[in-house]
Each structure stands twice: as C-alpha cells, then as structure tokens.
Amino acid sequence: MIYNVLGDVKDLFNIDVDNISFKGIDLIPEGDFSYRILDDKERDEVIVNILKKIESDNKIVGMPERTDTWSKGWLESLEEFRKIGTPTSLIPRYMKPNQFMRLNRQFVYTNDPHFEWHAYQIFKLCLFTKYLKDFKYIYELGCGTGHNLLTLAQLFPEKILYGFDFVKSSSDLVNLIASKFNYNITGDLFDMLQPDMSKSLKPNSVVLTCGAIEQLASNTTPILEYLLSQPIELCVHLEPIYELYEETNLVDYLAMKFHIKRGYTVGYLPKLQELEKQGKIDILEIKRLSFGSLYMEGYTCIIWKPLKGQL
Length: 311
Hints:
By secondary structure, this protein is α/β, with parallel strands linked by helices. It has a single domain, classed as Vaccinia Virus protein VP39 (Rossmann fold, 3-Layer(aba) Sandwich). It is about 40% helix and about 20% strand. The protein contains ten helices and eleven strands. Helix 4 runs parallel beside helix 7. The mean pLDDT is about 90.
C-alpha cells in the first residue's frame, strides 16, 4: 500500500522517492492519490467560483491586522495540541480539505479531500531526506505550527532544530512540541521583515522556509541581507513563485490574479537570480511541482547556497 502511494506521487510530481530512509517510510501517510480532470461544466463552475473569490477577498498580506490574525490562529493550534497532542492537530488551518485541486496546470477532482496535505507530507520527506540530512543545525523561518520541525525531528533525531516565527503563540507551540516528544527543538521569536542582526545562526546549518517568504509582501531585502550575513551552508524554500506561472494558461492566470490580490511576495526569485549573476550565491535547483490548492501553487522548490568569500 505504502509503496503504491510512493509510486503514485513519483508519477504525479516527477520526484525522487528512492532516497527516503526506512524511518521516512514509516512516516508516509496513506492516501488516495487518484484524480480525474474536470469536465467542462465542472471546470466552468470552479473558474466562476475562483473569480468570485478573487473579487470578494479582503485578506491582504502585510497589513498590520494580519499579525493579530496569525497570533490568534497559532494560538488556536496551540490550544488544540494541548488537548489532543497528536501530529494531526498541527495541520495548519489554511490547508482546508477540498476535493478540487490544481495539478499540471489543470483543475482536477481528487477522491481524497486531504490530497494536498498527504501529497505534501511525501514531498517534504523526499526534500528533507535529499537536502537536509547532512547538516547538524536546521532553522525553519516562519515555522507556524511546527509540523515541519516535528517531521524533521522524527527523521533526524540527532539534529538540533530551531523554529523561528514573528508571533509568540508559534514559538510557544514549537517549545511545547519539543517538551511533549522530548525532541531537540527550540522555538524563538524572529521577524523576517526586521531581522535581529545580532541573532547569529550556527555554521554547518541550513535554513528552511515553507510558505513564509510569501507573507513578506515583496519586502524580501531585509531577510536576504540577514541570510547572506550568516555562516549558513544552504537555503531551502517551498514557496509560491509568481514568476513561474504562465500568463497564457488560464489556470495559471487565475493563480496570478489571486496572488496579486492577496499581496503575496513577487520578485524573490529574480532577486536570487541577480545575486547569482553577481557571484554571491549559487542556485542549485528551481523545481515547480505544478500542484497546489484551488487558488494557487504553494510548493515551488528553490535551493540555493551562499558562495564563500563573496558575501
């Protein structure tokens, strides 16, 4: 059953599942990864609903009131984890069950309403096993509920993990996870818009972001300057990347419209590419999964490393 799931996801996303460790195999969720492309009537209904959502949406990334929204959201997760104490209570509330998804620049219907979450679990196992296994220290910026850190601790119990977020309820939740499961994880406050330059990251470390750069509302210069000032070895991003959408594709175009309406970050990839031209970093991989929720793709993978002596 598990290996069938692995094969399904390998075919869907063209990702390497062969390097998942034995322990990683144990962490793979069972899910139904079958799907079908929508018929014309269903597709029209989905498109109309997306357009209505774009017209009516009033959540703007970067507005001052969003800080309180995130603080309350992670506090709800903290309270739920205190009551239930299971990994499923760490699923972010923005990842809502839905049987309509975007896949390979088409809208599809999935049999599993938790398709996105289950697929993401397998993809991050592949990603973490491939890129993070050789580093002693791992920092996640914008760690939210800490679900990625929990997975990392299960995969690599010998590593030292840090979860940074700009609201206290998140860091409190991360520290509670560490206490409950006796993992070497530390939660701390950190604002990517105004990084504390005195907070030093350790050598032989890697920085991870998952849907966190998107929340900076395109103000990414401060965090890039901070990262380039630190003795890190690698940066791993899983983010929606506006520049990789194709404007001539309707499914992509709707995601672009939603991305701009929400105020998610644009221009981060071009900044990285400019830094590469300047000889300051080396971009190792840019991988678009062409997979995401009804409104956008949130899982484009960008891997880069600073070039020593160039900072």
